[in-house]
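Here is one chain, start to finish.
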Amino acid sequence: MKIICIGRNYADHISELENEKPKEPVIFLKPDTSILLKKQPFFIPDFSEDVHYEVEVLVKIKKVGKHIQEKFAHKYYDEIGLGIDFTARDLQQKLKEKGLPWEKAKAFDGAAVVGEKWLPKDSIADINMLNFRLEKNGETVQKGNTGLMLWKIDELIAYVSQFFTLKIGDIIFTGTPAGVGKVSVEDKLTGFIEEDQIFSIQTK
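Its structure:
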């Protein structure tokens, strides 16, 4: 399975990191080894002093597809989840300054939290107006709504499938809203879609 991540999909997050607004979706990949194992804490890596949380809505692909038209994209998933794209921000900044790929900052072991709970798409009134949030130690630090995405879920599936064949079990991270911040040892991170708790992890 592949983890396909979309960067810079919320205007307010682009602004907070002082990035340029892209003309098309920014895509990067994480290996399956980046998935944080169930019931395991997130261990802050020793190669970074500034690891950030980035909460994101996830989409799980349910059938193989290539060159998918946007009008048919809804047929390729029926579950919505939530996760965290952990980012070694200090390392990422150094790589960006040199024009190098981001993988060391984004794809390290444990850098992808995939919530254990998935919501049936049919149970969601409007997938393009979905509220989600991240709490750190009981305080809301990020909140977003899929209505603020620059590219909606079906648009992303159509776009990504031009470059990568989508396979059953592939997961798309759809981008993060503003409010990203540093994690410290013994932080508790809890993610919600509307009022459904999707994950809760501890940092070490």
